[in-house]
Amino acid sequence: MEQPIRVLLAKPTHDSHDRGVRYLARVLRDGGFEVVFMNFLLPEDVLSAATQEDVDVIGISSSAGGHMHVFIEIAQALKESGQQDVLLMGGGIISSSDVKKLRAEGVGRIFGPGSDPDEIKSYIRENARVATGTRN
Amino acid sequence: MTMQTERPTSRLAGEVLERNHRAIAQAITLVENGQGASELHTPLFPHTGKAFTIGITGPPGAGKSTLVDQLVAHYRAEGLSVGVLAVDPSSPFTRGALLGDRVRMRSFAADQGVFVRSMANRGHVGGLALATPSAIRLLDAAGFDRILVETVGVGQSEVDVVGAVDCTVVVEVPGMGDVVQTMKAGLMEIADQFVVNKADREGAERLARELRRVLREQSGKGANADVIQTSAHRGDGVPELLQGIEAFRERQIESGRLDERRQENLTREVAAFVGEHARRRLLGVSGTGLPPQTLEDLLGRRRDPQGLALDIVEAGLRPRLSEGVE
Q1: In angstroms, rounded to a whole number, what is the distance separating the alpha carbons of residues B288 and B294?
Q2: Domain encompassing residue B67
Q3: Which residue in B22, B94, B99 is closest to A51 by CB distance?
Q4: Interface list for chain B against chain A, based on CB atoms closer than 8 Å
Q5: What is the spatial distance between Cα B253 and Cα B260, in angstroms, rounded to a whole number?
Q6: Does A41 contact B107 at a Cβ distance shorter than 8 Å?
Q7: Contact residues, chain B, for A130 at CB < 8 Å
């Protein structure tokens, strides 16, 4: 049996804009992914959950700003701990200049409001380590 | 699909023993995917049996995750390390799953003494995932003092958890039905410890009273279970629950019932694996390896399924048995 792709979807606890990420969680569930859903205060919370859950993908939702250090710290820590095979991606309200900076830091695609759910699913399927066989 | 891990499985086992979180997580993934079973279990099994394992079960929305979160915090305050396995259902149609138990749990990110893993049941019925008993053993080998296993939200007969843990906590909430519900078989019989959660709600007192009365009248398993009222989101009653679990643990150890139960559970597990392996050996991995002629006979009602199964087993065992005699 083919193993399901495991995705961690994380949203800042104090960010009440959770409609997009909850919608995505359901889309991914219906797409056959195993979705771990969580709220977080600190980047470390996301990292430790990602490690323990052994997820292939981390998706961070941000609609209230303050996301730059979250993404960058997580990307850094993944690299330092030899887990750069985990796909880090994002969604929510993130400006195009921020997106550019994040992509330069090695963060994957950022899907804003109105994104096509099928595109998100195929992006994950094509880039998750389980699919590419690049697991560290 | 080949799975490339940075660590060869033999090294993984050693790192699980050192309680390396990443190694434990990868090992759980392997057993979930039905891989690496013998390479992990053979070296690790001798290191298991030290943890006390506690199942938390009950209907959806009863507050199991919130209760688990509270228990973890209290156990940590006592200096005990805790592993948590939280099982949620997979979709029978897409095999996808939404694992939401972490939403109810605070972060123990900075604490190496806590490990939390969400498991999708991947179509396995009974309240647990097929790999949950193996995952429990990995956490046991990693040296966690207590292991909490949260089942999917269960109905009345998903009672697998009782065969996988040392102590079963059944969580009920008021407003789910009348006294007849408490008289039914299944969930009512497996509890070593009852919890009436959401005790701040109307009807909690009455439910607790009814449960105590039914338990007094009940003979056999579950008859000695205690009923504790909690309000998990506020933490009320959680210290009492923890005391109840720990008192149960001590009674089980002193009376020798802990070993009895573990022996029963292990025996049942061996029997289940014998069935599983025999089926794979005799019928192929898919379990449908019947020759076309036999299939025709079945469909044509010339052979009956039970008789056919007996013949297959007999034929499969014959050479081995005669070898044993010689």
Answers
A1: 11
A2: 48-255
A3: B22
A4: 1-6, 21-22, 24-26, 28-29, 32-34, 90-91, 94-100, 102-103, 107-110, 115-118, 120, 122
A5: 10
A6: yes
A7: 1
Q: Which of A26, A54, A134 sits opposite B25 (nearest CB)?
A: A54
pLDDT for B74: 97
Domain count across chain B: 3
Q: Which residue has the tokens 């057993």?
A: B31
Co-location of B228 and B272 in the same domain = no
Domain boundary (B255, B282, B310) is at: B255
pLDDT at position B2: 40
Domains of chain A in sequence order? 6-129 (3.40.50.280)
Structure tokens at B313: 């087993």
- Would you state the torsion angle of the CA atoms of residues B218, B220, B223, B224, taken in this order, to the nearest 10 degrees? 160
Report yes or no for ipTM above 0.90.
yes
Distance of CA A92 to the CA centre of its chain: 11
Among A136, A128, A15, CA closest to A64: A15
Contacts of B4 in chain A (CB under 8 A): 133-135
Same domain, B133 and B171: yes
Q: How confident is the model over A16-47, as pLDDT tens digits?
A: 888 889 999 999 999 999 999 999 999 999 99
Nearest to A35 among B21, B99, B115 (CB): B99
**Same structural domain, B57 and B36:** no
